[in-house]
Specification:
Its EC number is 5.2.1.8. Residues 53-140 form the PPIase FKBP-type domain. One of its GO terms (molecular function) is peptidyl-prolyl cis-trans isomerase activity. It catalyses: [protein]-peptidylproline (omega=180) = [protein]-peptidylproline (omega=0). This is peptidylprolyl isomerase. It is a single chain. This protein is of the alpha+beta class. It has helices spanning 2-28, 90-95, 144-177, 183-195, and strands at residues 36-41, 55-64, 69-72, 79-82, 104-109, 130-140. Strands 1, 2, 3, 4, 5 and 6 form a six-stranded antiparallel beta sheet that branches. The longest helix has 34 residues, at 144-177. The radius of gyration is 32 Å and the shape is elongated.
């Protein structure tokens, strides 16, 4: 009986210590609900800021909130980001709106705007908030022609699709509703027209 009591007591202590370690890890992990942006270096002049449709060349270092680096572009060419084209995770794209060339910033991204529950194994666990240190190397504004190509043409194409479907439907309806003449009748009509 004493052995049973000792085992139950030991099991209870394990459960309590497990709960404590979970609580401690939860409190040490910062809860991030929305994208937080902090400017680290401001350029001397900022005449143009980024907007949807613009192209940025950036260097970045991506970290977990515990400081563990999972990716960096510093040893590669700058990453090309087209805002509004989903070339990066949504939280980073949101953090890059309204920035200038030459600006350095820190962007903290909540899990739902990063990799969410699936994570990006093995380097990014599930439900991980991310921190990016970003340097905007260059900013290319969207030209009016690019704006037309990116905004107007897709809308025109969307409008054409129902129109084309209607035309195909009318064609198929008229084809199916016209009386069908058999080949035998066609031959007889040809013979009659030749005799005349």
């Amino acid at each position: 009986m004493r052995l049973w009591g000792a085992c139950a007591c030991f099991f209870l202590m394990l459960c309590i210590s497990g709960l404590r370690s979970e609580e401690e890890s939860d409190t040490s992990q910062k809860v991030v609900e929305h994208v937080e942006t902090e400017i680290l270096v401001e350029p001397e002049t900022c005449t143009e800021t980024s907007d949807v449709g613009d192209t940025l060349h950036i260097h970045y270092t991506g970290k977990l909130l515990n400081g563990q680096v999972f990716d960096s572009s510093l040893s590669r060419d700058p990453l090309v980001v087209e805002l509004g084209r989903k070339t990066v995770i949504p939280g980073l794209e949101q953090g890059l709106l309204g920035v200038c060339a030459g600006q350095k910033l820190k962007v903290i991204i909540p899990p739902h705007m990063a990799y969410g529950k699936r994570g990006f194994p093995p380097s990014i666990p599930s439900d991980a908030a991310l921190e990016f240190e970003v340097e905007v190397v260059t900013l290319s504004k969207q030209t009016p022609w690019q704006r037309v190509v990116n905004n107007v043409i897709p809308l025109v194409c969307l409008a054409l699709v129902p129109g084309l479907l209607c035309l195909i439907g009318v064609y198929l309806y008229t084809k199916s509703s016209t009386p069908k003449v058999s080949k035998k009748k066609l031959k007889e009509e040809k013979k009659k027209s030749k005799k005349k």
